[in-house]
Amino acid sequence: MTKAKKPALPVIGWREWVKLPDLGVKSIKVKVDTGARSSSLHAYDLDEFERDGEKWIRFKLHPVQRKTNEVVQTEAKILEYRSVRSSSGKANLRPVIVTNIELLGQLWLVELTLANRDEMGFRMLLGREAFRQRFLVDAGKSYYGGKPPRKKKPKRR
Description:
About 5% of the residues lie in helices and about 50% in strands. The protein is mainly β. The protein has a single domain, classed as Acid Proteases (Cathepsin D, subunit A, domain 1). This is Retropepsin-like aspartic endopeptidase domain-containing protein.
């Protein structure tokens, strides 16, 4: 008796570009981190409010690393607050939202904690719960999904 083969999972690299369509983010570079359980999105100017008896959060983010000229202001329903231990070992209570993410033509829901990641190398960290049973990670390669088109700078004369 032979075991039925599981369908092969698509492969992603340790860095990828993703879309967060519900939040109005056309592209953001993520670090795919198999060592992190949860996923985190850079957010600042967090403002909690109530809508129809539910907790929501309005926030801003800079989708491009090391650049602050592009700002996306968005809002999402708060799922819960979760204690998250940072890479430095410090535990913080963070709001958690659920939103759609798009990578390699797949669209699915992920939980994201919101934290100021200005000092981090990536504006978003994609933890293993977000891609479990969906993708395999090639830790030696990047951008299996390609790179977004670059904005052309005007030529100087």
